[in-house]
Amino acid sequence: MTDDPRPTEGCEAETLIGELVASAHRLTRLAAQALVDPQNPAVWRTVAALQALGPTRLGELARQSRVTQPTMTKIVQHLVELGWVTRITDPDDARAQLLEVTESGTDALAEWRTALARSLAPYFEGLSDDDVRVIERTLEIVNERTSVEGNVRQQ
After folding, report:
1. Which of 18, 70, 78, 101 has its CA 20 to 30 A from that of 138?
2. How confident is the model at residue 41, as a pLDDT?
3. Model-level pTM?
């Protein structure tokens, strides 16, 4: 045993992060079962990604979403038809286009997130104030470490 506790703490953090990711996936599956939604989950992931990234080229959006450009083209076409995403001229290259979330898309995403939270709320009834604060703090940490700026630093 060493005098330096950091390696053990690092391993514990890695284990907790792995468990957090697994729990997030389980929560996502539970939400999908609890909420009847006509939209493919990729639609919401794409709107959320565009909202976080801001105006983005199709190729970059596909890369961020880890799908092929043809797949992203189909998703974006659907979003444009819904009026949730619009194409704008890239201010740095007039030949190129960027994709941007519309106000309607932002509203739809907010409504979906509210419906999702309501569908999951029964699973979390009776949490103590301390438990709610732990969830709030966990969200702060995850959001700080996974923000768009944080992702750019990692690349």
Report:
1. 101
2. 86
3. 0.77
